[in-house]
Specification:
heterodimer; A: 114 residues; mainly beta; 7-stranded mixed sheet; 4-stranded antiparallel sheet; globular; B: mainly beta; 6-stranded mixed sheet; 5-stranded antiparallel sheet; 11 strands
């Protein structure tokens, strides 16, 4: 158990819908990262927040957005869902946000879009 | 950007030693991470290398050669529970820490 929590564990929804995934970092960690893992793409970086501020963005779609709240938990919002958005979404956290920080991953949310 | 290559699959015998290679091409470099991931589960941190050489941690060791853009993960005394995907990830230069992952090497440990 890494200490990172994610809810829900599973999510099944329909195309065109909007969902929110939630992540709580390890105690004391200030950085939160979101990754998407699909069968054909591997683990892809989406976005990084440090202490409430966006630090880096990957190939995140415009339909996706995220934020980190004052209590440091983070939410990833996915809207206008498409079949291709079906994937495992992982949140990770690290102590600070530097390039040598180890990232610890949560158990993931499995999203299925029907 | 970064380009990371790993073998797709490997098979080894319980009790043996296996070496999983990773090569990368990157415009800058702040270190290389290895993670283990069992199917449907979270990636688990194994090791981090930023300087050339070997880092040893129990049954797992990781090696880095920055000049060659090459790393390997060495697993000794293989156990059945080591059957998993092993992900190599590079930390790019600049601000932030957006790891770029390879597609992973699926290791199967057999009796």
């Amino acid at each position: 158990d890494s200490g990172v929590t994610q809810t829900p564990k599973h999510l099944i929804t329909a195309t065109g819908q909007r969902v929110t995934l939630r992540c709580s970092p390890r105690s004391g960690d200030l950085s939160v990262y979101w990754y998407q893992q699909s069968l054909d793409q591997g683990l892809q970086f989406l976005i990084h927040y440090y202490n409430g501020e966006e630090r880096a963005k990957g190939n995140i779609l415009e339909r996706f957005s995220a934020q980190q709240f004052p209590d440091l938990h983070s939410e990833l919002n996915l809207s206008s869902l498409e079949l291709g958005d079906s994937a495992l979404y992982f949140c990770a956290s690290s102590l600070a946000g530097g390039p040598t920080d180890t990232q610890y991953f949560g158990p993931g949310t499995r999203l299925t879009v029907l | 950007g970064q380009n990371i290559d790993q073998p797709t699959e490997m098979t080894a015998t319980e009790g043996a030693i296996v070496q999983i290679n990773c090569t990368y091409q990157t415009s800058g470099f702040n270190g290389l991470f290895w993670y283990q991931q069992h199917a449907g589960e979270a990636p688990t941190f194994l090791s981090y290398n930023v300087l050339d050489g070997l880092e040893e941690k129990g049954r797992f060791s990781s090696f880095l050669s920055r000049s060659k853009g090459y790393s390997y993960l060495l697993l000794k005394e293989l156990q059945m529970k080591d059957s998993a995907s092993y992900l190599c990830a590079v930390s790019p230069p600049g601000g932030g820490n957006k790891l770029t992952f390879g597609t992973g090497t699926q290791l199967k440990v057999e009796l």
